[in-house]
Design a protein that fits this description.
Strand content: 15-25%
Radius of gyration: 16 Å
Structural class: alpha/beta
Largest sheet: 5 strands, mixed
Strand order of the largest sheet: 3-2-1-4-5
Number of helices: 5
Shape: globular
């Protein structure tokens, strides 16, 4: 299973692609999309075009998007939500199942602690995905989202294979 993880942002959206074969995870690619344009509509369109190209280039089987951490600044949260909507839209247009994960869930899966520091997350991603390099925390976060989805997906498949409770 090939998973594309996305860390949405209005200025910079990180993405990371991993391959999951059973319990073995491997790094495929990662990068960032920088929004361009002078107004919000242009910037969102720019993200849409760039993310669509990422989907075309890497052909993921599933996608995962990080949920937003609500800021005290409502305007920032709203703009971030719009960038997140672009990520969900592009995945839906590709016909993919999309997982959504809170930042603390990603940290707990990757590091084992829900309030881990960014440096801890980056260190654990390098250990879990040998050969992965990234120049921004956005890329590392996106790879963490992909790892989280691969692990959650594996457990979802196990649980769905268990026969349902006997009818009474």
């Amino acid at each position: 299973m090939r998973v594309l993880g996305i860390d949405p942002g209005l200025r910079v959206t990180g993405w990371g692609v991993i391959e999951a074969k059973g319990s073995v995870l491997s790094h495929v690619a990662n990068g960032i999309c920088r929004s361009e344009g002078s107004d919000l509509a242009d910037r969102l369109n720019s993200l849409h075009i760039q993310l669509t190209e990422v989907f075309r280039a890497h052909r993921p089987d599933e996608a995962a998007v990080e949920q937003i951490f609500v800021n005290t600044d409502n305007r920032s949260s709203l703009k971030l939500g719009q960038a997140r909507a672009i990520a969900l839209l592009v995945a839906a247009q590709a016909g993919l199942r999309v997982g959504e994960y809170a930042p603390n869930t990603v940290k707990k899966v990757v590091v084992g602690v829900g309030h881990a520091q960014k440096s801890q997350v980056e260190h654990m991603i390098r250990l879990q995905l040998p050969g992965a390099t990234f120049s921004t925390s956005d890329e590392a976060d996106a790879l963490g989202v992909a790892i989280t989805h691969a692990i959650h997906g594996r457990f979802d498949n196990i649980l769905s294979a268990i026969p349902s409770a006997v009818e009474t």
